[in-house]
Amino acid sequence: MKVLITGAGGQLGRDLVEAFAEVAPGVGDLVAIEHRDLDITDEDAVRSAVDAYRPEGVVNAAAWTDVDGCEADPTRAHRVNALGPWWLARACARRGARLVTVSTDYVFCGVAPVDGAGQPRGWSEFDPVEPINVYGRSKAAGEQLVRQSVAAHHIVRTAWVAGARGRNFVTTMLRLARERGEVAVVDDQVGSPTCTRDLAAAIVELAGSDRYGTWNRTGPGHCSWYELAGAVFELSGVEVELTPQPSSALDRPAPRPAWSVLDATHAEAAGLMAMPHWRDGLARLLAELEG
Ligand SMILES: NC(=O)c1ccc[n+]([C@@H]2O[C@H](COP(=O)([O-])OP(=O)(O)OC[C@H]3O[C@@H](n4cnc5c(N)ncnc54)[C@H](OP(=O)(O)O)[C@@H]3O)[C@@H](O)[C@H]2O)c1
Predict the structure, then answer these.
(1) Fewest C-beta in 10 Å: which of 2, 15, 66, 115?
(2) Ligand 1 geometric centre to CA of 103 (Å)
(3) Domain at 3-167+193-220+256-276, CATH class
(4) pLDDT category, 27, cuts 50, 70, 90?
């Protein structure tokens, strides 16, 4: 299948390029376009790119992921995270190509849903979205616009993403430990960490499937940011003084959802690959960063 990847220079984009290159080794089977070569907010440019390359599938890894930046500039957030996927969806529909686009746990409000026993459960693909910040609203709008524009779509919701080639929580923790020797990390937000290599493999699988829809794709298990930091330092053997703190101590412009756990029941029952546990993905990511 001939695939066009947008946002190919981001942390997920780079790992997607490698993952697709392994399964699509033919010359011209893979076209990877970075932001400087295609701005997805430019509808004409998006249509021209899809017309020129004639992909059978487009995988969109482009997004404006600066959550506090989005809060300060809702129009830019909407243009990149909602209109960009819409232009891609419309271009795909025109050419009969399928679209995979990546979304987020931030479409949910963060108040944990509960199961029959009253215990918190992960968000399913079928829970109503209720974003609490601009970034989440822009991504939820992007999902809706894609759904209404191209039937052949996969919307991949993921969470707490970290890869070897990007700025993320894991690389930030390692840098802060080096620079300061002590780190305070919030312990009142819980989520499902996901390494980009595992996510890229899951996206390759979906791109080849015609069971279209919305899919949760994160590692199983969950932890707080504080627990994730502890695992980063434990697995990398870094000595650091780690203390928990509440989110309120950070006083950030955009509120963050407290419960960002995504449930894999639908994806796995439908036969998609079981993703590796987040600690396993983290261990491989740390090894890659060290190597
Ligand atoms: N990071 C997370 O924790 C997380 C969690 C849940 C879901 N997600 C989703 O996962 C996907 C990948 O995220 P990521 O972590 O790989 O983000 P990332 O590293 O910030 O990559 C995003 C890429 O999109 C590019 N981009 C921004 N605006 C663009 C535009 N108008 N046109 C074309 N490209 C543009 C960026 O280029 P520049 O840097 O040059 O602007 C960057 O290369 C996104 O859909 C994101 O919403 C991420």
Answers:
(1) 115
(2) 10
(3) alpha beta
(4) low
